[in-house]
Fold these 2 entries.
Entry 1:
Amino acid sequence: MTKADDFDMFYAATSRRLVRQIFAMTGDLSEAEDAVQEAYIRAWRRWPRIRAYEDPEAWLRVVAYRITVNSWQKARNRLTAHRAGRHHELPGLSPDLVALVSALRKIPETQRRAIVLHHLAGLSVEEIAHETGAPTGTVKARLARGRRALAPLVSEFDDSPQPGAAIAAAQE
Amino acid sequence: MPETFSTQLAGLAEYADRNASLAPAAALRGRAARRTLRRRGGAAALLGGGALAIAISLGVTNTGVVMPAHSAASSPPGSVKSPGSVRSPGSVQLTSYQTTVLAKADVTKANLAVLKKMRLTPLQIKALGVAYRTAQQIAGAEGSDKQLTVAEIAAVVKVKLTVAQLAALGYTNMTVAQIEAIAKADLTAAQLAALGG
């Protein structure tokens, strides 16, 4: 198998999954598409090295996320002027999901990222800590706070936070 | 709300699946390749103008500096064979790329970053810088063009040279064992000069 074939197969297997995750983190599908494609372009330029990583998909997710964060930072000044009225076009999305996207956008980036990595990507707290570079206690706290913030929308979050998360949150 | 959070997130994922439009992998690979070419070409063009101006003002554009072969070999395709190549009678031809690199001997952090993108190692950049400064000094002192030998260039390059680099610099009359020994020795400029080329 050639290097290009290997890359193409990896792209076919993982790219849509990454778009889903980045979309859930950003709430903007076109931004997620752009960021994920840019991440793959960067990956291709050093593919042998990236391929040898234990989890190349995690590398791509981190890069794509950073791209979105950087684009947010660049646009921050422009967004500030009309943040309150900003609307992302999400045609075809049910009202419940539009409300979820809206709620996700309202919680801090770090909490949103932890929530998506845990509940959508299926990563454990330890894996999230590894990917985000944050201590596990911090990740637990972010998850707990994110769940609390989303509780009004999500019935399963109405219960008290997990003991571990509560302890971590208290320690922060 | 009856749905679990994971179910709701799955709904978002399905929405992304239905609506996301991703380019084929081959297209992304093509974009990566074009970007690489553009960056290399752009970097050469960026440095080219300044380098030529410096070289002309110093009168050392074609002093006959014999480029270490490894530097030319390591330059990226497309930049070495640029049409900006210049030549004067009796001197070794320097491509505009080589002139550019030489003229950037006193590298700033920004320049270093650009040179790194040209796949030159710091060692090669350093070697080129020393060679260029030497060429300037000799041209200034004698008032005329002076062709540096590979030995002269090598003599002032206090760096750890690889076997390939030493061979490229003209130490080819030595045995492989001797070249390897030199490569491992981290010789000083004086020691290299004593060895000759």
Entry 2:
Amino acid sequence: MIEPITERMRADVVVIGSGPGGAITATLCAEAGRSTLLLEEGPDLPLDAAPHFSSDEILHKYRNAGVTMAFGNPSVSYVEARCVGGGSEVNRGLYHRTPPYILDQWAGSHHVDALTADALTPHFEACEGTARIAALPGAPPPLSQRLGDGAAGLGWEAIAAPRLYDYEAGRKQSMSATFIPRFRRAGGRLIADMRALRIRRINGRWEVTARHRCTRDVTIIADALFVACGAVQTPALLRRSGLRRNIGDSLRFHPMLKVVALFDAPVNRPGDPDPVHQIKMFEPRFGIGCSISSPSMLALALATNAQMRAHIATHADRMGLYYVQNGTGHGRVRALPGGCDPLVSVRHEAAGLDELYDGVRHLVRALFAAGAIMVQPCLPGFAMLRSVEELAAWPEHLPRRSALLTSVHVFASCPMGENRRICATDSWGRVHDADGLRIADASLMCGPTIANPQGSVMAIAHRNALQAIERRFA
Amino acid sequence: MLPDFAATVGALAATVAEREQSATGSPQTARDFVLASFAAMPFYLRSPLRAATLIFDLWPLFRRGRPFHALPPAQRRAQMQAWEAGPARMLMRFYVSLSLVSLWHD
């Protein structure tokens, strides 16, 4: 259903951004009987509009066609979604609850109230029911099992992560398949292709100036406003609108380094389920996992390694792509005058990069223990390895020019908590000194989780939206 | 002969395709994918990238009398290899990476 667009619109609640945080917030507000308008900058496309991880999907569902960069030494190439459902549409849906020790850290550093594992449990459970979180039934795909086997061979623990996935139907799940339909059933209105340009407080209400792909600028008036545009676009919108206190100063990533392994037998068969194994016992120093290993993703990871790339033509079924990630890097988001895209910068501490590099060494060891016959780190200047002993020839520290960092997780740009020296909002997502304005996305997180953050974003949005409704959005 | 951004992107994609002989995607599709990605990039990346690409295209003009996009395939390969090992390797990495995604599209 296409929502009619007029020059001036009105709603009790406006939510900007339809990713996991925004979709859950909008659903709860609509179900509470509030007239709720959900704005999304990107298009409203079905979950299966393009094959997952295809070039079509990159062009149509990713912000800037996937070409976004945090500038630094080294820079971080990160990706964000820009479509109804946000990141949940394009990610693999791997799911974790926030580790309790992370919540304890946030309570200590940012003074976040009432955000314990016990307090969050009902919110995790509520989200998991609708989003269809499930463990892979049956045997995992060989590419995934190999990582588990390699870990076991070294005496390490590996787990098989649950996903947003309907294994009975064989279909990935996302916000557009779960919460957005629930939002619509509750009478919520969704407008896609609508970019919020700025917000302002006027006469006790919030006014959103937005631009639709097909119309002139429109004005939307709301009693309560939630900004859920993601950890880069949320601070960009707030800063464009004159709200700058602790906004966009503390962006974090989960930067990744990748490795390709060639095994002695097929591990990567067409039609296999997505891999799910992860080695989490070294977190928070680093976490290890499996990536999508289609020929195009292998070729992309091996763009600077022609020797291993040459095997894709004949041995793609024996190749697997794996990653190491941690929380190194502190970023900043700044809106540029007249520009749509904010400037993102990042600085790294040597210790964080060293930990990531140590993670690559651990991953290489696990892959050889799993039966790999060749391992190629996706690091320019690093040769292919044929045995674990060759690791001894690696430089002590990762050369920064070899650190091809990528990230699919961005967060913590507007952290929550009662520590007003560093927090942008209170413990419930209310922007300090801005009545009726809340943030409802990954921006609120206080730091890295190393685990996939989507579960944390969903549960915290659920918690905060219920509190906002209970308080009548005061 | 003038520099030509779209023709240079097409020539770069065709050169990557020649090197990836087993990839099933077409150079034309790779060119279109790179141009579509370029069009969607943030403006502060787009402008310097376009300028660097045009410099890359003009580079062989004085030595070989033609811009990159009009060179024969062997000379294109040689120029790309030289740039991949030089200070402008990030420019080459950008074009090679995007072309590979399209050329190896399942």
